[in-house]
């Protein structure tokens, strides 16, 4: 989810999100297994020209079927997401390893 504005990513269509100083991405990780995962690496990739922006974070613990799954917040200022282009399209994707 991209905030402010609670823009949820839809894999089937382009979601335009204005690049602002307050922009942040919330990446929530669900554990659909039956074993607690530890030190889960989470990556956020913003595909843009001339080079993509990649940021990573780590969740200490992800419990199976958690009522409130853990979330990594990538902030424009604090995490220094990078210079987001306001004129170009940017494709955001996330993954957990």
Count the strands? 6
Strand content: 35-45%
State the helical fraction: under 10%
- Secondary-structure element order, as H and E? EEEEEE
Distance N to C terminus:
19 Å
Distinct helical segment count: 0
Report on the biggest sheet. Answer: 3 strands, antiparallel
How would you describe the shape?
Answer: elongated
Provide the domain count: 1
Mean pLDDT: 76
- Biggest sheet strand line-up: 1-2-5
Given helix and strand content, the structural type is: mainly beta
Uncertain spans: 86-90
Rg is 14 Å
Structure write-up:
It is built from no helices and 6 strands. The chain starts with a strand and ends with a strand. The chain has one domain. The protein is mostly beta strands.
In short:
The chain is an all-beta fold and 97 residues long. It has strands at 2-3, 24-28, 37-47, 53-62, 71-75, 91-96.
Layout: helices, strands, pairs:
Layout (H helix, E strand, L loop, with lengths): L1 E2 L20 E5 L8 E11 L5 E10 L8 E5 L15 E6 L1
Antiparallel strand pairs: 1-2, 2-5, 3-4, 3-6
Q: What attributes characterize this protein structure?
A:
6 strands, 3-stranded antiparallel sheet, 97 residues, mainly beta
